[in-house]
Design goal:
- The protein has about 425 residues and is mostly helical.
- It has two domains: about 140 residues, no CATH class; about 280 residues, no CATH class.
- It is about 80% helix and about 0% strand.
- The chain has 17 helices and no strands.
- α2 runs antiparallel to α3, α11 packs antiparallel against α12 and α13 packs antiparallel against α14.
- The longest helix is centred in the N-terminal third of the chain and has 39 residues.
Length: about 425
């Protein structure tokens, strides 16, 4: 019995030492980042550095191990008071007004140390890394805040409302004919496609067209391949730039459009993704090769100018997209029920003239629900992509002229042929 008690005591001691070591290391990591940042900012003295943070986290772990609630409260209160006093002193200095980031981080270090004492070492480790990364991103966060204007801030907040607040409140069941209208599913797709456009929007804004029209086509295609096609074609006509460069950007944008279809299928209906992958992969591969050949040999400093992509966070486009998706979902269910595959194909052909995402989402949703086969959903999306590419080929010719249009049309024809052969 004595040996068992000794072994248990030894195990408790090892666990306690491990918690203290984890807490100290977590505090040191956060404090080291603070100390390094303060040195880079030219501060000769700083309120808390690596040693102070390590000691505070160590204190939190020790208070937690002792298990007295009053001791934990007293220790936290004491550190809080000292932090407030130090903040008030620094705020009175001539170069004060630096904010309270370090002080808040110190309180977080104490709580992370307390978590280590409660057998939550993984929380302590991940929390310390997360806090350190967040602290180190000061300049990046400031750059992002400076890059956003008032319109984008308000639009982003509206997007958060419709995604975080509205989505959970929507019923998750089918309504209407064929039970084809599921409010939550439809709104999830609105949120998803808006988020995908968000990535492309900010890549376009941050990277800009000065990186070249090829890059502009790639990142612009993530937000809207149609807008990118029209913008590049018009820019080529207005600036009389290199036709090959602008054709490369247009073709690249539409290759990204095929990648968007693959992403949507992969997330919603994996079976349709595998069915469509050969055709989408073949079309995108041929398109990227054509874009590379167009781009080769042109002057790479030929810029495309600013793309008028619009803000993907605007509420009105999201509502319009939701309505279009609902209508196409209903039309797809009706067409498949009344006319079989031919009905769905007709809906895909017509809807693809204006948009590919809506019919892709509708077909993917039907496939996920078991209403249609994954192969049928894949073929519908491919038909929509084909009709959409034809429209954008005509758009390139009419907006950009014969030199741009001929190159784009040739590349699109090869992409379509590759997709058709791969789908057989």
């Amino acid at each position: 019995m004595a040996e068992g008690a000794a072994a248990e005591f030894g195990g408790d001691a090892i666990g306690a030492l491990s918690a203290l070591a984890t807490a100290g290391a977590a505090g040191f990591l956060i404090g080291f980042e603070r100390e390094w940042t303060h040195r880079m900012e030219g501060r000769r003295e700083s309120f808390a550095g690596a040693r102070t943070f390590a000691l505070v986290a160590f204190t939190g772990a020790l208070a937690g191990l002792l298990g007295e609630a009053l001791l934990v409260i007293a220790a936290f209160s004491l550190i809080g008071v000292l932090t407030i006093i130090a903040y008030r002193i620094s705020a009175r200095e001539p170069d004060g007004g630096r904010g309270g980031t370090t002080e808040v981080a110190l309180m977080a270090a104490f709580l992370l140390g307390l978590a280590a004492a409660k057998d939550l070492s993984i929380v302590t480790v991940l929390g310390a890394v997360g806090v350190t990364v967040l602290l180190s991103l000061k300049s990046e966060i400031e750059a992002i805040a400076s890059a956003m204007d008032e319109k984008e801030i308000h639009a982003a907040l509206r997007f958060l409302v419709i995604s975080v607040m509205v989505l959970p409140l929507l019923p998750n069941e089918g309504y209407g004919p064929y039970d084809a209208l599921n409010p939550r599913d439809i709104w999830q797709m609105v949120v998803f496609i808006s988020g995908l456009s968000f990535v492309g929007y900010w890549l376009t804004k941050w990277l800009g067209a000065e990186k070249g029209v090829m890059l502009t086509g790639l990142v612009g295609g993530m937000a809207s391949s149609t807008a990118t096609t029209l913008s590049l074609a018009q820019r080529a006509r207005d600036t009389r730039g290199e036709p090959g460069a602008y054709a490369a950007g247009i073709v690249a944008a539409n290759c990204v459009m095929l990648a968007r279809i693959a992403i949507l299928f992969a997330v919603i209906a994996p079976g349709a993704f595998y069915a469509a992958l050969p055709a989408l992969g073949a079309g995108a591969s041929v398109g990227f090769i054509a874009a590379f050949l167009f781009w080769r040999g042109v002057k790479h400093n030929d810029a495309a100018g600013a793309l008028e992509l619009g803000n993907p966070f605007e509420l009105k486009p999201a509502l319009i997209f939701g309505a279009v998706l609902a209508a196409i979902s209903l039309a797809a269910a009706f067409g498949a029920d009344r006319f079989g595959e031919a009905g769905l194909y007709a809906v895909a052909l017509v809807s693809g003239l204006a948009d590919v995402d809506a019919i892709t989402l509708a077909a993917a949703g039907e496939a996920r629900a078991g209403a249609i086969s994954p192969d049928l959903a894949a073929r519908a999306a491919l038909i929509a992509a084909g009709s959409n590419i034809v429209v954008k080929g005509v758009m390139s010719y009419s907006a950009g002229g014969a030199k741009i249009g001929a190159r784009v049309a040739g590349a699109f024809a090869l992409m379509g042929a590759a997709m058709f052969l791969a789908s057989l």
